[in-house]
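User: Run a structure prediction on this.
Assistant: Running it now.
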Amino acid sequence: MTSKVTEETLGYEQARDELIEVVRRLEAGGTTLEESLGLWERGEELAKVCRRWLDGARARLDAALAEEEAEAEEESGE
């Protein structure tokens, strides 16, 4: 699965939950080096998906706050 497919198909909660499972499996041990590397790579990919979702949410919040502030300034005559 490529990063693009993952980003397009996973919501934040799905990516976060899968990331938690990946971390749990890595911490539990008992996997081969190859499996551990695959899990680590998947975890990195999932972390990037989560970061993009969070960055997008922050941008939306910032835009909404800026719009609200601009409206308040117009109403107060500044």
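The two ends are 52 Å apart (CA to CA).
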